[in-house]
Amino acid sequence: MLSRLSRPKALTVCAVPLVALLATAAFAPLPFSVAQPGMTANVLGENKGTPVITITGAPVRTTSGQLRMTTIEATNPDTDVRLADVVDGWFRTDQAIMPHDSVYPGGENTKEIERHNTQQMRESQDAATEAALKYLDLRGQGVKVTLTLADVGGPSAGLLFSLGIVDKLDGDGSGGDLTGGRTIAGTGTIDTDGKVGAVGGVALKTQAARRDGATVFLVPRAECSDARADLPEGLRLIPVSTLKGAVDALVALEKGKGSVPSC
Fold it and tell me: Same domain for 62 and 4?
Protein backbone atom coordinates (compact mmCIF):
# COMPACT_ATOMS: atom_id res chain seq x y z
CA MET A 1 0.00 0.00 0.00
CA LEU A 2 2.79 2.43 0.88
CA SER A 3 4.27 2.08 -2.59
CA ARG A 4 1.22 3.80 -4.05
CA LEU A 5 1.44 6.84 -1.76
CA SER A 6 3.35 9.98 -2.55
CA ARG A 7 6.63 10.38 -0.67
CA PRO A 8 5.30 13.00 1.79
CA LYS A 9 2.25 10.91 2.56
CA ALA A 10 4.37 7.77 2.94
CA LEU A 11 6.67 9.53 5.39
CA THR A 12 3.67 10.75 7.34
CA VAL A 13 2.23 7.25 7.58
CA CYS A 14 5.58 5.89 8.78
CA ALA A 15 6.10 8.69 11.25
CA VAL A 16 2.81 8.24 13.07
CA PRO A 17 3.65 4.93 14.79
CA LEU A 18 7.21 6.14 15.48
CA VAL A 19 5.94 9.27 17.20
CA ALA A 20 3.47 7.18 19.17
CA LEU A 21 6.26 4.84 20.24
CA LEU A 22 8.50 7.71 21.34
CA ALA A 23 5.64 9.34 23.20
CA THR A 24 4.92 6.08 25.01
CA ALA A 25 8.60 5.69 25.91
CA ALA A 26 8.80 9.27 27.13
CA PHE A 27 5.92 8.94 29.57
CA ALA A 28 5.97 5.25 30.50
CA PRO A 29 7.74 4.25 33.74
CA LEU A 30 11.05 2.47 33.14
CA PRO A 31 12.70 -0.29 35.25
CA PHE A 32 15.41 1.98 36.63
CA SER A 33 16.27 3.89 39.79
CA VAL A 34 18.07 7.21 39.99
CA ALA A 35 20.83 7.17 42.61
CA GLN A 36 22.99 9.90 44.12
CA PRO A 37 25.60 10.19 46.91
CA GLY A 38 24.01 9.42 50.27
CA MET A 39 24.88 9.88 53.92
CA THR A 40 28.06 8.63 55.54
CA ALA A 41 28.54 7.63 59.17
CA ASN A 42 31.62 7.31 61.35
CA VAL A 43 31.47 3.80 62.78
CA LEU A 44 33.93 4.82 65.51
CA GLY A 45 31.50 7.46 66.76
CA GLU A 46 27.78 7.90 67.31
CA ASN A 47 24.80 7.83 65.01
CA LYS A 48 21.77 9.77 66.21
CA GLY A 49 23.17 9.84 69.74
CA THR A 50 23.93 6.11 69.98
CA PRO A 51 27.41 4.58 69.64
CA VAL A 52 27.63 2.64 66.39
CA ILE A 53 29.92 0.03 67.97
CA THR A 54 29.51 -1.07 71.58
CA ILE A 55 31.89 -3.71 72.95
CA THR A 56 31.80 -5.49 76.29
CA GLY A 57 33.99 -8.27 77.68
CA ALA A 58 37.32 -6.75 76.55
CA PRO A 59 39.24 -3.48 77.03
CA VAL A 60 38.23 -0.85 74.48
CA ARG A 61 40.59 1.80 73.15
CA THR A 62 39.88 5.50 72.80
CA THR A 63 40.26 6.18 69.10
CA SER A 64 41.00 9.22 66.99
CA GLY A 65 40.28 9.67 63.31
CA GLN A 66 37.19 8.37 61.57
CA LEU A 67 36.08 5.29 59.68
CA ARG A 68 33.13 6.38 57.58
CA MET A 69 30.80 3.91 55.93
CA THR A 70 29.18 5.28 52.79
CA THR A 71 25.78 4.96 51.16
CA ILE A 72 23.84 5.94 48.09
CA GLU A 73 20.34 7.39 48.04
CA ALA A 74 17.99 6.12 45.37
CA THR A 75 14.50 7.00 44.25
CA ASN A 76 11.84 5.20 46.27
CA PRO A 77 10.98 1.73 44.98
CA ASP A 78 7.51 2.86 43.94
CA THR A 79 8.69 6.06 42.20
CA ASP A 80 8.17 6.12 38.45
CA VAL A 81 11.39 6.83 36.55
CA ARG A 82 10.78 8.09 33.03
CA LEU A 83 12.87 8.58 29.94
CA ALA A 84 13.61 12.22 30.76
CA ASP A 85 14.99 11.19 34.17
CA VAL A 86 17.19 8.55 32.57
CA VAL A 87 18.56 10.95 29.96
CA ASP A 88 19.22 13.63 32.58
CA GLY A 89 20.95 11.23 34.96
CA TRP A 90 23.02 9.67 32.21
CA PHE A 91 24.95 12.90 31.65
CA ARG A 92 25.42 13.89 35.30
CA THR A 93 28.38 12.87 37.46
CA ASP A 94 26.42 13.27 40.70
CA GLN A 95 23.76 10.77 39.66
CA ALA A 96 23.68 7.24 38.31
CA ILE A 97 20.99 5.31 36.51
CA MET A 98 20.83 1.80 37.95
CA PRO A 99 18.56 -1.16 37.20
CA HIS A 100 15.73 -1.15 39.70
CA ASP A 101 16.37 -4.76 40.69
CA SER A 102 20.04 -4.06 41.49
CA VAL A 103 19.01 -1.35 43.95
CA TYR A 104 15.92 -3.08 45.34
CA PRO A 105 16.38 -6.85 44.94
CA GLY A 106 14.26 -7.82 47.91
CA GLY A 107 10.75 -7.64 46.52
CA GLU A 108 8.22 -5.58 44.66
CA ASN A 109 6.73 -3.44 47.38
CA THR A 110 8.27 -1.11 49.94
CA LYS A 111 7.64 -3.32 52.97
CA GLU A 112 9.23 -6.36 51.33
CA ILE A 113 12.25 -4.32 50.30
CA GLU A 114 12.68 -2.79 53.75
CA ARG A 115 12.43 -6.24 55.33
CA HIS A 116 15.01 -7.62 52.89
CA ASN A 117 17.44 -4.72 53.46
CA THR A 118 17.09 -4.98 57.23
CA GLN A 119 17.82 -8.70 57.10
CA GLN A 120 20.87 -8.08 54.92
CA MET A 121 22.17 -5.47 57.36
CA ARG A 122 21.67 -7.83 60.32
CA GLU A 123 23.52 -10.64 58.54
CA SER A 124 26.26 -8.22 57.52
CA GLN A 125 26.73 -7.06 61.12
CA ASP A 126 26.97 -10.63 62.37
CA ALA A 127 29.52 -11.50 59.68
CA ALA A 128 31.52 -8.33 60.36
CA THR A 129 31.67 -9.10 64.07
CA GLU A 130 32.75 -12.69 63.53
CA ALA A 131 35.36 -11.69 60.94
CA ALA A 132 36.88 -9.07 63.26
CA LEU A 133 36.97 -11.33 66.33
CA LYS A 134 38.41 -14.15 64.23
CA TYR A 135 41.12 -11.81 62.90
CA LEU A 136 41.98 -10.78 66.48
CA ASP A 137 41.85 -14.37 67.81
CA LEU A 138 39.08 -13.35 70.22
CA ARG A 139 36.33 -15.75 69.18
CA GLY A 140 34.97 -17.63 72.19
CA GLN A 141 36.56 -15.14 74.60
CA GLY A 142 33.31 -13.68 75.90
CA VAL A 143 33.56 -10.52 73.82
CA LYS A 144 30.17 -9.11 72.86
CA VAL A 145 29.77 -6.59 70.06
CA THR A 146 26.61 -4.60 69.37
CA LEU A 147 26.32 -2.64 66.12
CA THR A 148 23.68 0.08 65.78
CA LEU A 149 23.19 2.16 62.67
CA ALA A 150 19.78 3.74 62.09
CA ASP A 151 18.07 4.12 58.73
CA VAL A 152 20.63 2.10 56.76
CA GLY A 153 20.02 -1.26 55.11
CA GLY A 154 21.95 -3.72 53.03
CA PRO A 155 25.33 -5.43 53.46
CA SER A 156 27.80 -2.87 52.12
CA ALA A 157 28.98 -1.50 55.51
CA GLY A 158 30.44 -4.87 56.52
CA LEU A 159 34.09 -4.01 55.90
CA LEU A 160 33.88 -0.73 57.82
CA PHE A 161 32.14 -2.43 60.75
CA SER A 162 34.95 -4.99 60.97
CA LEU A 163 37.64 -2.31 60.78
CA GLY A 164 35.87 -0.31 63.49
CA ILE A 165 35.84 -3.31 65.82
CA VAL A 166 39.53 -3.97 65.13
CA ASP A 167 40.43 -0.32 65.77
CA LYS A 168 38.51 -0.19 69.05
CA LEU A 169 40.04 -3.42 70.34
CA ASP A 170 43.55 -3.44 68.88
CA GLY A 171 44.22 -0.29 66.84
CA ASP A 172 47.26 -0.74 64.63
CA GLY A 173 48.51 -3.53 66.90
CA SER A 174 51.24 -1.43 68.52
CA GLY A 175 49.35 1.26 70.42
CA GLY A 176 48.38 3.55 67.55
CA ASP A 177 45.13 4.18 65.75
CA LEU A 178 44.29 2.17 62.67
CA THR A 179 43.21 5.40 60.99
CA GLY A 180 46.40 7.29 61.83
CA GLY A 181 44.06 10.14 62.82
CA ARG A 182 42.76 10.44 59.25
CA THR A 183 39.22 10.33 57.97
CA ILE A 184 39.05 7.01 56.15
CA ALA A 185 35.96 6.02 54.20
CA GLY A 186 35.07 2.92 52.25
CA THR A 187 32.59 0.28 51.27
CA GLY A 188 32.45 -3.46 50.80
CA THR A 189 30.63 -6.52 52.05
CA ILE A 190 32.46 -8.98 54.27
CA ASP A 191 31.98 -12.64 55.10
CA THR A 192 32.89 -14.48 58.29
CA ASP A 193 36.31 -15.39 56.85
CA GLY A 194 37.12 -11.74 56.22
CA LYS A 195 36.73 -11.76 52.44
CA VAL A 196 35.63 -8.42 51.00
CA GLY A 197 32.94 -8.41 48.32
CA ALA A 198 31.83 -5.93 45.68
CA VAL A 199 28.93 -3.52 46.11
CA GLY A 200 27.04 -1.08 43.90
CA GLY A 201 27.29 2.66 43.39
CA VAL A 202 30.99 2.97 44.20
CA ALA A 203 31.51 6.11 42.08
CA LEU A 204 28.73 7.85 44.01
CA LYS A 205 30.09 6.67 47.35
CA THR A 206 33.49 8.22 46.64
CA GLN A 207 31.73 11.56 46.16
CA ALA A 208 29.89 11.17 49.46
CA ALA A 209 33.17 10.27 51.17
CA ARG A 210 35.07 13.30 49.89
CA ARG A 211 32.12 15.58 50.67
CA ASP A 212 32.31 14.45 54.30
CA GLY A 213 36.04 14.96 54.66
CA ALA A 214 37.61 11.62 53.74
CA THR A 215 41.05 11.58 52.12
CA VAL A 216 41.30 7.79 51.74
CA PHE A 217 38.72 5.40 50.33
CA LEU A 218 38.83 1.62 50.73
CA VAL A 219 37.25 -0.06 47.71
CA PRO A 220 36.70 -3.73 46.86
CA ARG A 221 39.52 -4.62 44.48
CA ALA A 222 37.11 -5.80 41.79
CA GLU A 223 35.60 -2.30 41.61
CA CYS A 224 38.74 -0.23 41.12
CA SER A 225 37.76 0.88 37.63
CA ASP A 226 34.30 1.96 38.80
CA ALA A 227 35.81 3.89 41.72
CA ARG A 228 38.23 5.72 39.41
CA ALA A 229 35.33 7.06 37.34
CA ASP A 230 34.74 10.70 38.34
CA LEU A 231 37.04 10.26 41.36
CA PRO A 232 36.94 13.42 43.48
CA GLU A 233 40.19 15.35 43.77
CA GLY A 234 42.05 14.68 46.99
CA LEU A 235 40.68 11.17 47.55
CA ARG A 236 43.13 8.26 47.50
CA LEU A 237 41.86 4.82 46.52
CA ILE A 238 43.11 1.70 48.29
CA PRO A 239 41.84 -1.60 46.86
CA VAL A 240 41.21 -4.43 49.33
CA SER A 241 40.08 -8.02 49.05
CA THR A 242 40.33 -9.17 52.69
CA LEU A 243 40.03 -7.70 56.17
CA LYS A 244 43.70 -8.51 56.83
CA GLY A 245 44.69 -6.76 53.62
CA ALA A 246 42.70 -3.68 54.62
CA VAL A 247 44.31 -3.59 58.08
CA ASP A 248 47.78 -4.08 56.62
CA ALA A 249 47.22 -1.29 54.09
CA LEU A 250 46.03 1.15 56.76
CA VAL A 251 48.94 0.29 59.05
CA ALA A 252 51.40 0.81 56.19
CA LEU A 253 49.74 4.12 55.38
CA GLU A 254 49.83 5.22 59.03
CA LYS A 255 53.45 4.31 59.62
CA GLY A 256 54.73 5.33 56.20
CA LYS A 257 56.33 1.92 55.81
CA GLY A 258 55.58 -0.96 53.51
CA SER A 259 53.49 -1.09 50.37
CA VAL A 260 50.10 0.59 50.16
CA PRO A 261 48.14 -0.83 47.21
CA SER A 262 46.49 1.49 44.73
CA CYS A 263 43.95 1.20 41.94
Answer: no
